[in-house]
Amino acid sequence: MTFRAPVSEYEFLLNHVVGYHSIPATDRFAEATSDTVSAILTEAGKLCDEVMAPLQRNGDLHPARLENGVLRTSPGFADGYQAICDGGWVGISAAEEFGGMGLPQTVAVAVYEMMAGACLSLQLAPLLSQGQIEALEHHASDAIKELYLPKLISGEWSGTMNLTEPQAGSDVGALTSKAEPNGDGTFAVTGQKIFISWGDNDFCGNICHLVLARLPDGVPGTKGISLFLVPKFLPDADGNPGKANDLKVVSLEHKMGLHGSPTCVMQFDGATGWLVGPEHGGMAAMFTMMNNARLGVGGQGVGAGEGAYQHALAYALERKQGKTASGFIADHADVRRMLMEMKADLFASRAILMACARAIDMHTATGGSDWAARAAFLTPIAKAFGTDTGMRVSETGVQVYGGMGFIEESGAAQYYRDVRVTAIYEGTNGIQSMDLVARKMMDGGEMGFALIDEIEEQAERARATHPNMAEAVWQACESLREATEWLVSQQDMQDRFAGSVPYLRAFARVLGGHYHLAAAMADQGGPREKLARFYITRMLPEHSALLAHAQAGAEGTFALSLDELAG
Questions:
Q1: Global pTM?
Q2: How far is residue 231 from each of residues 90, 208, 356, measured CA to CA in Å?
Q3: Engineering a disulfide at 495: which of 23, 342, 537, 553 sits with its beta carbon 3.0 to 4.6 angstroms away?
Q4: Which positions are catalytic?
């Protein structure tokens, strides 16, 4: 499928909307100047356009398959993965001492979002390795780092994460996988894991599994879980893949989408593994991987939405139907409305992603606790709103196609089928919203109120040039402040949880208005100012209904008994 990586969109966002200039102003990222980043994004864009995008349909039409226990990937995926490795993109944010580029997360998120727009199924493979690299950098022993990190960063080996079991999905503490000490510093890991993305492939020399399991003295629940690195092949004395470990792919899941990405059922039968992090400290180590993975999944949603938007726009500019100024359906008012909503929401969700990534980078560079709190607060919003946007935009893309959108040969439906899982894995969007109103509000809403203050301060500055838009954003922000005050006053968590999804969406809507307003100020008279006016006038008002829902409490949600729900 034809795809053009949105390089110029990222350059504008970084330079004029989310304040990227503060990142190269630090010692840690001094070399990651705006000019350098532009060059990097341009090169990544070429990879997306010329190598990955042509593989999009291959993955859907010719899925990964298991033949006599050997996994065969989709045609062209091996070459595509090698091109990713050759460009150094697997280790874009990894430590330079192990062969990585050491670039900011802001740049990595941008690159991987563009990859997701080109071919989401293939992008998922290096994204998982990137998460494992970070987990090992923070928690693994020096010996593990020295052996595994260079090979993971080069892409010679790939990484996975193994959390979910048939009886333990979101409730990770219910897992039954166990690990027994072997007496030589290694452990025998036994258990079955499901939903393991890229649990195997035919283009890497080794597959490195991060596996959650319980030691014999591990207490029930999450506090008794440890993390283990369990490779497909046991490294020999020279660090090369040697004897096959006692693990296998039992089967592949038959999925709604992402057919090019093999989702495996993994069986570990006393497989040799090495402890990562302290005993019983597995969740803390895994969350290092999961938190940035959540930001990455938000980027997958935005990327898939970008692909769907470009696909729909191209069709709308060539399909003739009815009487319009140009003769094409893009000039029908309702089609134009859909295209504008798609583009406006992609901008908003992309800006939230970049703001979150910037906070991570500033914390990394300065150690500032405020930056860490900001990143933590924005992460569930970036993940949930980014993937919601991807689903909504992809679904709208099918609608733009009309009847042809329901025909698989058009390719429109693939974007929706592929992106749908992003709202589910790495913590469902409902769990993200519960995290936002509970754990992220443990400070009494301090970070939420700090963001609200910043939005209002910018709105005040914008009154000089964009009075109407500034007033709309300011009023929406005041409504958000009142809802947040109500939220933190609720001691009953069910009241918070019942309105958590609309609250998160409302916060994202207001943040979207904030970033669109910044774009309008930077591009007066230009297309981004026009897009901002559309968003603020027609889409931002949704916040009002969302906040009303958020503050309704739990009583109505539980008004019907289970029997009445079934009646």
A1: 0.96
A2: 18, 4, 32
A3: 553
A4: 426
